[in-house]
């Protein structure tokens, strides 16, 4: 219906080579982009800073982890630490007066450097063993940060982020931080969309499926595994700086614990491993389902005068949220992105049921 | 009897309309809105529920009596689960709905909200959480601990030890067992200064969060043969620490903790086994204070209590009442200064920062909050667990405030110069 795929065939190579070959997809993307660009005008402050901003930042982070886990198939349980390294590097540099643009990149490079050192473990181990190695990274980094007053910022262990500028715009107002996060998320998304079309992306896919088969095919597993860790940690570091500057505004070691790693891991698993759209959906679900369920329950209780004990009110959404996640893993293990893909595939050839092969 | 869809919808709509109407009548009252977003589910669990129960029971008491200064208190309670996006969302939502105060009861959340609260001029209560240097009201006008911070608590404990040793700690050995997080390490700087000043030896033993297993630490503590032990944590780490201290045969009457020790902790440890252990008390515990009696008669007695009656009067419950009372006193003073509002952050801030000699009818030590001192004077007392309840061993007192304020000034100066 919408997609009008049936019967359309590409006649030029560049048509087929586009990121979005279907006109409807392009329209949809442009509409979403337009809404996101106009968001400061369309939505009020609560929506902008309470929902859209964390959504964009966490999505950017999830995209970075997805490159490693979804594309290259390397398990990483220490992504929160990677972001922490980036955040601390970035904030320290900004406090020294380094421009944010450079501090961001430096945060990324620092994360990439340390992340790759730990990622080198992946050359020797796989699966659950690699998970343990990266988990160790999480704890080591946590430990180093909180035990170094020079890094964490003295007895109170909080580093305030001074007001900064990005490309000449001071990041003080809500809309400035929002556009900053949107820009970073846009760049990362664009990169991720293109990665799978490059030889790098294909090599990662080969690695994911079977690393020694990939080696036999001529893909250097040594090089590409390290590259996967490097690129994904770089993204994590940059997003860590963005998180600190645009959202938290004060960094402390509590913010980059294992919980953050697990949260981002959950986002890409629920959203869909190895897809670009998945992290967007997964982030929305993981970040906001508890909030929305909590508020819904609260307003239902308030309207109907129910006297729910607060402990119950706090735990019921958790229960519902857990059921939701289990439901996804049971009925759609490929995640939310697959649900959308199912719908899209169905609509591509509608009113017919099956596409011709 | 079967209900068809039409009558169900009509009935629901009628009920909803009624409630809508009821809430509109309520909305015509002059109200002061508080955002009470706390962690009910992740780390602090029962600590939060008891604290929160006390707060809400106190607000109910105030509203039952017709409010304060012509205003009713509306407290929006939500769960932020110690998760920053959720806490920031709750903060922003509260702000949109006109909340003039937020009480997050969480150190990480409070630290992340500091820049926002200062910028938006929303009063953030950081009782027993957040930054200790927020006691300096000149650097943090909108961050209000309103209670003895961790540095003062450490100072009180050392002072009490000194009293036990008849005035001198010279050559004594004091062990500090703490959770290895910024919160756990916070008192270290004070203890180090005091160790130099008083001439005692300070040994520190950190345990890894969340502190479920401390069996490696406590034998070392025993072997160090300390004269006194201070243990520092919150939630699960506290009960584990106390259990291990008992198992290693440390004399309980020489073991002390911060404000984080309650009857509920003792139920876990064993009420008799823990006999003798000390803690810092910021307000009176138990059901004797007049306010608690009033709550029992006018709120809980009428079936309007926010939680189980058995928890009324426990340590954390009374902390909640203490904070509720201080907030409401702030509203009363603000309303006395500017009866017609408008109800804004600065309006309430004015009230909160002019609380003078407030004792909440005997629940608190005399508390005076000024524009410079957000700690409220720094008075507390030490009390000892006798197997059934905490019995005060000292009167309200204040100690080592010169050292504490030195540290506060040092940190708040750094915040003032680099934080902006």
UniProtKB/TrEMBL annotation, chain A:
Cited InterPro entries: ABC_transp_permease (IPR001851), LivM-like (IPR043428)
Membrane topology: Multi-pass membrane protein
Membrane-spanning intervals of the chain: 20-43, 49-69, 76-96, 102-123, 135-156, 176-195, 226-248, 260-278, 285-306, 318-337
Record protein name field: Branched-chain amino acid ABC transporter permease
Primary localisation category: membrane
MF term (GO), any: branched-chain amino acid transmembrane transporter activity
Keywords for the protein's UniProt record, in alphabetical order: Cell membrane, Membrane, Transmembrane, Transmembrane helix
Highest taxon of the lineage: Bacteria
Pfam families xrefs: BPD_transp_2 (PF02653)
GO cellular component, one term: plasma membrane
Location of the protein in the cell: Cell membrane
TrEMBL record, chain B:
Leucine-binding protein domain: residues covered: 44-386
UniProt-listed CDD domains: PBP1_ABC_ligand_binding-like
Keywords: Signal
UniProt xrefs under Gene3D superfamilies: 3.40.50.2300
The keyword Zinc is assigned to this record: no
Record carries keyword Signal: yes
InterPro entries documented for this protein: Leu-bd (IPR028081), Peripla_BP_I (IPR028082), TAT_signal (IPR006311)
Matching SUPFAM superfamilies: Periplasmic binding protein-like I (SSF53822)
Xref: PANTHER family: BLR6548 PROTEIN
Family classification: Belongs to the leucine-binding protein family.
Protein name: ABC transporter substrate-binding protein
């Amino acid at each position: 219906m919408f997609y009008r795929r049936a019967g359309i065939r590409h006649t030029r190579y560049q048509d087929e080579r586009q990121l979005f070959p279907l006109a409807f997809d392009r329209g949809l993307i442009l509409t979403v982009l337009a809404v996101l660009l106009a968001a400061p005008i369309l939505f009020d402050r609560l929506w902008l800073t309470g929902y859209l901003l964390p959504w964009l930042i966490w999505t950017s982070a999830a995209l970075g982890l997805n490159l490693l886990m979804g594309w290259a198939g390397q398990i990483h349980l220490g992504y929160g630490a990677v972001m922490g390294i980036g955040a601390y590097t970035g904030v320290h540099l900004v406090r020294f007066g380094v421009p944010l643009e450079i501090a961001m990149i430096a945060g990324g490079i620092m994360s990439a450097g340390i992340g790759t050192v730990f990622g080198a473990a992946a050359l020797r181990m796989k699966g659950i063993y690699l998970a343990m190695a990266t988990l160790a990274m999480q704890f080591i980094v946590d430990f180093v940060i909180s035990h170094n007053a020079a890094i964490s910022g003295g007895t109170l262990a909080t580093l305030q982020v001074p007001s900064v500028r990005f490309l000449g715009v001071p990041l003080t107002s809500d809309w400035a931080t929002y556009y900053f996060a949107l820009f970073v998320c846009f760049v990362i998304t664009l990169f991720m969309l293109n990665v799978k079309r490059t030889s790098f992306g294909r090599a990662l896919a080969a690695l994911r499926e079977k690393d020694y088969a990939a080696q036999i095919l001529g893909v250097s597993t040594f090089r590409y595994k390290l590259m996967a860790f490097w690129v994904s940690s770089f993204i994590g570091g940059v997003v860590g700086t963005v998180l600190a500057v645009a959202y938290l505004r004060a960094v402390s070691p509590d913010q980059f614990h294992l919980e953050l790693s697990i949260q981002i891991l959950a986002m890409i698993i629920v959203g869909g491993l190895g897809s670009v759209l998945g992290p967007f959906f997964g982030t929305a679900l993981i970040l906001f389902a508890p909030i929305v369920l909590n508020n819904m329950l609260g307003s239902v209780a308030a309207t109907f005068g129910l006297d729910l004990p607060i402990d119950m009110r706090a735990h019921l959404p958790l229960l519902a949220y857990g059921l939701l996640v289990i439901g996804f893993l049971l009925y759609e293990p490929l995640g939310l992105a697959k649900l959308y893909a199912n719908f899209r595939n169905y609509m591509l050839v509608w009113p017919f049921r099956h596409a011709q092969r | 009897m079967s209900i068809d869809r039409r009558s169900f919808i009509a009935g629901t709509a009628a009920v909803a309309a009624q409630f809508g109407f009821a809430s509109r009548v309520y909305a015509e009252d002059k109200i002061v809105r508080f955002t009470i977003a706390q962690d009910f589910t992740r780390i602090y669990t029962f600590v939060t529920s008891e604290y929160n129960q006390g707060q809400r029971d106190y607000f109910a008491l105030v509203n039952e009596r017709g409010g304060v200064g012509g205003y009713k208190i509306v407290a929006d309670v939500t769960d932020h689960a110690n998760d920053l996006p959720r806490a920031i969302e709750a903060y922003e939502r509260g702000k949109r709905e006109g909340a003039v105060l937020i009480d997050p009861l969480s150190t990480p959340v409070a630290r992340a909200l500091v820049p926002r609260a200062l910028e938006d001029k929303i009063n953030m209560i950081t009782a027993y959480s957040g930054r200790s240097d927020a006691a300096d009201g000149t650097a943090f006008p909108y961050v209000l601990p309103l209670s003895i911070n961790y540095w003062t608590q450490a100072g009180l404990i050392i002072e009490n030890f000194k009293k036990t040793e008849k005035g001198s700690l010279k050559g004594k050995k004091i062990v500090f067992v703490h959770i290895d997080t910024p919160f756990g390490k916070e008192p270290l700087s004070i203890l180090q200064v005091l160790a130099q000043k008083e001439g005692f030896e300070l040994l520190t033993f950190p345990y890894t969060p969340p502190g479920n297993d401390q069996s490696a630490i406590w034998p070392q503590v025993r072997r160090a043969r300390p004269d006194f032990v201070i243990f520092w944590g919150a939630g699960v780490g506290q009960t584990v620490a106390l259990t291990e201290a008992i198992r290693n045969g440390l004399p309980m009457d020489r073991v002390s903790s911060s404000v984080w020790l309650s009857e509920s902790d003792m139920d876990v440890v064993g009420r008799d086994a823990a006999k003798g252990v000390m803690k810092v008390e910021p307000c009176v515990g138990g059901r004797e204070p007049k306010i608690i009696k009033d709550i029992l008669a006018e709120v809980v007695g009428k079936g309007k209590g926010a939680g189980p009656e058995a928890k009324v009067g426990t340590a954390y419950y009374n902390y909640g009442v203490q904070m509720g009372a201080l907030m409401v006193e702030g509203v009363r003073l603000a309303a006395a200064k500017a009866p017609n509002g408008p109800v804004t952050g600065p309006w309430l801030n004015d009230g909160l920062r002019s609380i003078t000699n407030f004792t909440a009818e005997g629940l608190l030590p005399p508390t005076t909050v000024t524009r410079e001192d957000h700690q409220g004077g720094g008075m507390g007392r030490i009390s000892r667990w006798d197997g059934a309840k905490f019995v005060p061993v000292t009167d309200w007192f204040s100690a080592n405030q010169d050292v504490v304020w030195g540290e506060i000034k040092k940190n708040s100066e750094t915040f003032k110069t680099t934080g902006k």
